[in-house]
Amino acid sequence: MNAHAPAPPPLYRPVADECAVFEAAHRAGLPLLLKGPTGCGKTRFVEHMAARLALPLFTVACHDDLSAADLIGRYLLRGGETEWVDGPLTRAVRAGGIAYLDEVVEARKDVTVVLHPLTDDRRRLLIDRTGEELAAP
Q1: What is the pTM of this model?
Q2: How far, in Å, CA of 126 to CA of 107, rounded?
Q3: Are the C-beta atoms of 88 and 56 separated by less than 8 Å?
Q4: Pairing assessment for the beta strands 73-78 and 81-86 based on DSSP bridges
Q5: Closest-CA residue to 84 (of 93, 94, 72, 75)
Q6: pLDDT by residue (tens digit) across 59-93?
Q7: What per-residue confidence (pLDDT) applies to 6?
Q8: What average pLDDT does the segment 128-136 reach?
C-alpha cells in the first residue's frame, strides 16, 4: 500500500439516502442535525462522510460542563505571553471542515447560543474575545 495514499473512508453501510442528503447539504452550505439513539451509527456516519468528502473532522463531546470558550477558544498564558488559542469549533470553521458536536442536546444554553449565527442564514462564527467574525465555507 502506498504510504501517501489517502485512507479509505471508515466502514459505513448506508441504510437509505443519507449519504446523498449529507452531500447535498454540504454543497448548499446547510448544517445538519443527526438524531438517533446511542449506538445507532451517527458518529461513524459523520466520520465516513468527512473522509468521503476529504474534509477535516473536529469532534466535540458535549456535556453540561462544556463552556462556549471550550468550543470557540480562549486566551492562555504561554511562556509569560498571553495568546489566543482557537477551540475546535473555530478550528473547524477556519479549516473549512466539519464540526461534529456529539450529544449537543446535553450542552448548556450559553454553548448552543454561540451556534445560532453559524447555523442560520448568517453562516458566521462570532468570536467576541478577539472581535473576529469568521464566515463558514
Answers
A1: 0.88
A2: 18
A3: no
A4: antiparallel
A5: 75
A6: 999 999 999 999 999 999 999 999 999 999 999 99
A7: 60
A8: 96
Cα gap 21→17, rounded to integer Å: 6
Whole-number pLDDT of residue 90 = 98
Cβ proximity of 76 and 40 under 8 Å: no
List the domain boundaries for the chain.
18-135
First-last CA distance in the chain: 33
Q: What is the mean pLDDT of residues 9-18?
A: 91
Average pLDDT, the chain: 92
- Is-contact 124 117, C-beta < 8 A? yes
- Quick one: which of 1, 2, 19, 21 has its CA closest to 10? 19
Distances 12 to 51, 113, 118 between C-alpha atoms, Å: 11, 32, 28
Q: Is the pLDDT of residue 54 over 50?
A: yes
107 is written with which cell numbers? 450542552
CATH architecture of the domain with residue range 18-135: 3-Layer(aba) Sandwich (3.40)
Strand partners, 134: 125
